[in-house]
Design goal:
Blueprint lengths: L1 E7 L6 H9 L6 E7 L6 H6 L6 E5 L6 H10 L5 E4 L10 H9 L5 E12 L4 E2 L9 H11 L9 E3 L4 H4 L11 H12 L1 E13 L12 H12 L5 H14 L5 H4 L1 E7 L3 H12 L4 E4 L30 H21 L5 H4 L4 E6 L6 H21 L14 E4 L10 E7 L6 H14 L4 E2 L4 E6 L4 E5 L3 E9 L5 H8 L7 E11 L10 E4 L5 E5 L4 E5 H4 E6 L9 H4 L3 H16 L9 E10 L19 E4 L2 E4 L7 H15 L1
Helix pairs in contact: 5-7, 5-9, 11-15, 11-20, 12-14, 12-20
Length: 652
């Protein structure tokens, strides 16, 4: 049995001639599946006039295009062999018989095809040589040299066991190249044999593929990128050289194409690239800044969260996520860097959690929440002896204490001493950058990603500096993540907010050197982080200089315009922290740092319903070979990279 697929769109002028030529075949054992793609003429009326049990008619309520309509028809086929005959062409009466009898002679055949006799606006005859080599690479090279006219697409096709090779590729411009690209897929699967039988192709003004060769470079690039999934470096080089013979404008293929492109070079993108490099992928990073590990990966407090700050998430989902990420952080970082880290040397002082009297959370609520963190932690470390928090496995994560002598009692209702730390981001970032360079991972700096396009089996990343190509893309962007996601996926059903958060770095202040680090919870407060080499100060009402809900931050958000008066900014922070610590001190060589913070929702942190009090969104979205990671916090970067590596492995 054979399945014959006829895609129809406004085909009333030629449809009867096409259908009649099929029904009068000498080979009778077939089904005829027809799908009208929301025609505006009387194509459906013509189809319904036929009274033949072999005919099955479908009708699309909306126009889905030629490629998707063909794929729909293929999905409805019931037999091992099928062919696609557009509604404006016709075939001789011995067409199916000739193709079928040739096909069954050799199990390695996947396509038996005719020669083309064109008529109408173009008149010529096309013969294309058989691809009957046993070697896959030899068939593909012959395809590149001789089969760009798409003749064998009209042949009898054996269904592929590989579903990715069975259907036409939908990621193309105006459905161009679909027929030629599927022939390439057939050449990968098996032999293609020309049979001495004609196929009559009509050329007219409305042919979908009448101008397919206008953008042939795109087709060459598609073939090369798809071939990377099947061939070793030697054979891939042969593909490239053959393509270059045909089109010398393709010299960029090897230079700017990669197995995987990682967009964004912060903590998330850098960890992902190192993980994928360890797995043997040719990976690169595209980053907008003049160095890796900038923005939020450098200009914040560097806390490795245990979940304490997310007490407003009653589900404990955020707490669980932060604990998992924190307990994997040091192990994964050391694995990626191929060295042990002296974590004690780069830790801050332990964190106190001070609860202001104006906190969004009451003391009794925190007294209920903190033990739950402890219980979750106990369960995790008992199940896995390898888990640790920055090289340690402390038995107790917190202790409630009555008062803190150095703090102003007018402001605070209670206090918790924790085992939570920040780490010196500057030190760790340099280690990561050095390892990326040592591993030879290409990094394209100062490349602002403008757009992403999907082609025949590959992605094109467009930046202000050039074009980059890959079969797989990992979106690790920070503030532009949603914008680029929307180039590929349907619009997200959530809102994204952006805040520009600033802080102050000071050289160590003598009067504060013995103080523990402090986080003020929950609400619009801030942090003090005490490192041996520097101190970090941030107070929310002064440090937050913008709040925007969109798919990207405002274009006019610049450091210089948001902090117009640096001295005033520093003085405001000095006043509030002098008041908190109940003593006078000055910052030493203060430096203002800042970065954009991204989160879900449309409410700021002073609102109890704000999504900023949660970080439990889905970690990784993926479709086809596009992966988008929701980093959330610095803490999550390493573990997310591990999960992504698992997903990519399963996808392959």
């Amino acid at each position: 049995m054979i399945s014959i697929c006829v895609p129809v769109y406004n085909g009333s002028l030629y449809l009867e001639e096409c259908i009649n030529s099929i029904l009068h075949q000498s080979f009778k054992n077939f089904e005829l599946i027809v799908c009208d793609d929301c025609s505006s003429d009387n194509s459906l009326e013509i189809l319904y006039k036929y009274n033949d049990d072999r005919i099955v008619i479908y009708s699309n309520k909306i126009n889905i295009g030629w490629v998707k309509n063909c794929n729909f028809l293929i999905s409805k086929t019931n037999y091992q062999y099928f062919c696609i005959i557009p509604c404006d062409d016709y075939i001789p009466s011995n067409y199916l018989e000739k193709l079928y009898l040739t096909m069954i002679k050799d199990e390695s055949m996947v396509n038996c095809y005719p020669h083309i006799i064109s008529f109408g606006k173009k008149n010529y005859r096309i013969h294309q040589k058989s691809l009957n080599q046993e070697s896959t690479i030899e068939r593909v090279i012959d395809f590149i040299m001789h089969h760009f006219k798409g003749v064998s697409f009209r042949g009898l096709i054996k269904k592929s066991k590989n579903m990715d090779l069975l259907f036409l590729n939908i990621y193309l411009q105006d459905d161009k190249f679909a027929d030629t690209f599927q022939i390439f897929q057939h050449a990968i699967e098996g032999k293609l044999i020309e049979v001495d039988v004609p196929y009559y192709k009509r050329y007219h003004d409305n042919n979908t593929h009448s101008k397919w060769n206008d953008d042939v470079i795109d087709l060459y690039l598609s073939i090369y990128m798809f071939a990377k999934n099947f061939f070793n470096d030697t054979d891939l080089k042969l593909c490239h050289d053959t393509i270059y013979q045909k089109c010398q404008n393709t010299s960029f293929l090897i230079k700017n194409s990669f197995d995987i492109i990682v967009m964004g070079g912060g903590i998330q993108g850098s960890c992902v690239s190192l993980f994928l490099k360890k797995l043997g992928y040719n990976v690169c990073i595209i980053e907008k800044n003049n160095s890796l590990m900038k923005g939020a990966s450098e200009n914040n407090e560097g806390k490795i969260h245990l979940g304490f700050v997310y007490s407003n998430d009653k589900t404990l989902d955020t707490a669980k996520k932060m604990l998992v990420d924190a307990l994997h952080f040091s192990n994964i970082i050391e694995f990626l860097l191929d060295e042990k880290i002296d974590w004690d040397a780069i830790k801050s002082k332990k964190f106190l959690y001070l609860v202001p009297k104006t906190s969004l959370m009451k003391e009794n609520e925190l007294d209920e929440y903190f033990p739950k963190i402890q219980n979750l932690y106990d369960e995790m470390i008992q199940k896995n002896y390898k888990l640790n928090y920055l090289g340690k496995r402390p038995p107790k994560l917190y202790e409630k204490i009555k008062t803190v002598d150095c703090m102003n009692p007018e402001y605070f209702q209670c206090c918790y001493e924790t085992e939570e730390f920040s780490i010196n981001q500057f030190y760790l970032n340099e280690k990561i950058i050095h390892t990326i360079k040592k591993k030879g991972i290409p990094v394209f700096l100062e490349n602002h990603i403008k757009n992403m396009k999907i082609h025949l089996g590959y992605y094109e990343i467009i930046t202000d500096k050039g074009y980059y190509y890959s079969n797989r893309v990992v979106n690790c962007l920070w503030e532009n993540k949603t914008k680029i996601d929307n180039c590929f996926n349907e619009k997200k059903n959530y809102t994204t907010n952006f805040r520009y958060k600033f802080g102050i770095l000071s050289k160590p202040i003598m009067d504060l050197q013995n103080e523990r680090s402090i986080t003020f919870v929950n609400g619009p407060f801030g942090d003090f982080v005490n490192f041996p080499d520097y101190m970090y100060f941030s107070w929310y009402p002064y440090s937050m200089k913008g709040f925007s809900v969109s798919d990207k931050p405002p274009d006019d958000w610049k450091f210089e315009t948001l902090i117009e008066n640096k001295q005033e900014f520093i003085q405001l922070h000095k006043n509030i922290f002098n008041d908190i610590f109940k003593r006078e001190f000055d910052f030493i060589d203060p430096k203002i740092i800042g970065s954009i913070i991204v989160a879900k929702g449309d409410k700021d942190i002073d609102n109890v319903d704000s999504e900023l009090h949660k970080r439990c969104e889905k970690r990784i979205d993926y479709k086809k070979n596009y992966f988008s990671i929701s980093t959330g916090k610095y803490t999550s970067g390493p573990y997310n990279s591990f999960l992504l590596a698992e997903i990519i492995g399963k996808c392959l």
